[in-house]
Amino acid sequence: MAKMEREMGYIQEQFNLAEQTYGQDVLNLVLAKGYLAKLMANEAVLRHLTKKHPDMLSEFDSIVRLVMLEK
């Protein structure tokens, strides 16, 4: 029983931490999304990423296409 109480305490602490940082995390993601969208609208940047860093391009594209933050 004591172990369960300790685990619940730990989970509660982790939840509180996530709750405290959520707003800042969302703001950072919104800003990053906007910045990446502008970068990817630049044809030279897009060409470079396509040729040299296709893995990064894929990840950046995933971030730009996030729609959950727009609702």
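[next item in queue]
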Amino acid sequence: MAKKNADVHFQIMEILTAYIRENAPVAEGTHERKPRQDIQLAFTVIGRRPPKRIALERLQKFRLDLNNCDLTRIEGRGFDFAKADFIGTRFVRSQLKNANMQYATLVNANLQHARHLTDAFLRGAALKSIDFTNIPISQDQLELTFGDESVILPKSLDRPSHWPHEDLSPTLFRHQWRAWHETLPPDGD
């Protein structure tokens, strides 16, 4: 229905993201089990939105709200989650090969053992309060993201020079992240 009717697209996306938030919340002691089929299906529908609808979302400055979701072992290969909010979301052992997470908000997100993160598109993403010690991410990916002192990097990676050398408040972080976006060359987005 959302593919054929632009008028209801935003409502359907809000319903699907709310469904995931309500039915797959982050909880203490969560086991690393596969997501329920209904959660995977909703995530798949959102991730495979047609390019015309994604363009409409960007025009309207719409962001997907997938905050505080348990997406452990979710299949997200090749899905488009650009400009989505993943604050406090768990991606433990999730499949993120070729996932588009450009300009996404990854704050206090758990990416432990996420598969193929080095193949994900992270240009312009916000990274805060994430421990990358055992998470495969490349220096090239980091250079295209914005983070602060709260991000823990493995010894093999260097902190990008444009990252502030302090743990910023959420408001200041958001402000500096948006200001940094203005310095990025256009990417056809």
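[queue empty]
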